[in-house]
Amino acid sequence: MLHACGVDFGTSNSTVGWQQPGRPALLALEDGKVTLPSVVFFDVEDDQVTYGRAALSNYLAGYEGRLMRSMKSLLGTSLMDGQTEVQGKAVPFRQLLAQFIRELKLRAEKSAGTHFSQAVMGRPVHFIDDDSKADKLAQDTLEQIARAAGYREVQFQYEPIAAAFDYESRISKEELVLIADIGGGTSDFSLVRLAPERAHRIDRKDDILGNGGVHIGGTDFDKYLSLNHVMPLLGLGGRLGSQIDVPSSYYFNLATWHTINLTYTQKVWRELQEVYRDINTPGLRLRFERLLNLVEERDGHWLAIKSEEAKILLSDQQTIDLPLERLRSKQPTAACHLSLDQEGLQTSIAHLTSSIGDTVKTVLNMANIKPEQVDTVFFTGGSSGVRGLRQQISSIVPTATKVEGDLFGSIGAGLGLDAARRFA
What we know:
- The protein is an alpha/beta fold.
- It has a domain at 219-346.
- It is 39% helix and 21% strand.
- It is built from twelve helices and 17 strands.
- Strands 3-2-1-9-10 form a five-stranded mixed beta sheet. A five-stranded mixed beta sheet has the order 13-12-11-16-17, sandwiched between helices. A three-stranded antiparallel beta sheet has the order 5-4-6, with helices on one face.
- α11 links the parallel β16 (376-380) and β17 (401-404).
- α4 (159-168) crosses α12, α5 packs antiparallel against α10 (342-367) and α10 (342-367) runs parallel beside α11 (387-396).
């Protein structure tokens, strides 16, 4: 039995793929599901660690502890060499990532009934935009972490190329395909010539006509949805009695997954109390009390989950009215709701979708390919369901057939195929 697998360690969700006759391409990782949300919860009361959906469930149930999510976003940044407090101890971020990938490996091995010593790890086209040195450092760091998690041999493949391999396994003729992989932290594109008769080749460099990426993904959509439509409910944009704006840094930290915990320090709490004393209008006082309560109850991750939920709901609906029951003030008031429509979401993220569209155009220009030459756009990645983003990409290659892959599984399945070819 082949002891090689493909590991898609994602910003929001992770999968593990492999190739074994008569077995599914993706391994079950949690309660029969092939995705494991990239989430860790450290329970202070019971001194336990949970992962994935169980971690989110324990956090939302109100257990005292520390939630970590979007850990992949740390790769290539200065934070990667830092540490954070977990269960009263200072723990390096590298150790936290290795702990999650080790858990991912153990679950995959249990599901497969075999040990995995070799892995093809997925990676975005760019971990860090316009900085090749930082990008290399991010890949080297991920390799070290994967080895620390127990993999003896580690190789890498671009995530959109892995998705291309998955799509290629299902076509009957040659196609020029634009792979659009919109993940939690990055948007990556590859222009690839695919065909059944090419699938057996290990070296596919000649079939890759162009690739590119930008460090924008689903968590960025969540962030700007939150800043434009949720954080004003907590006082963002208000003016104090001293005629200055309410400081925005607290709201930016709360709207960004890997900085939410920065809001929970004693220093920040004292600053918030000082700001509150400088508010002299009842409306702003009520909204800021919601912020104080949110920070005191450490519900920042809950609010980020609600912003993500709003984005997902708007993939299928024109308007939503989402209850935000944990946003409370000292005064008895009506329950807080987030009312939002498609236009509001698209306006909030227009600068992001525009940058992503520019990246698609760059990939086409790099390959010297005209839009009408593209046969197919293959959408994958959990954030590719955002309606405005799809419209932006589709408008650039209007004649191409639009195909939706397994939004959460195509990359892992493709990495499993690649692992079988490389390590067979």
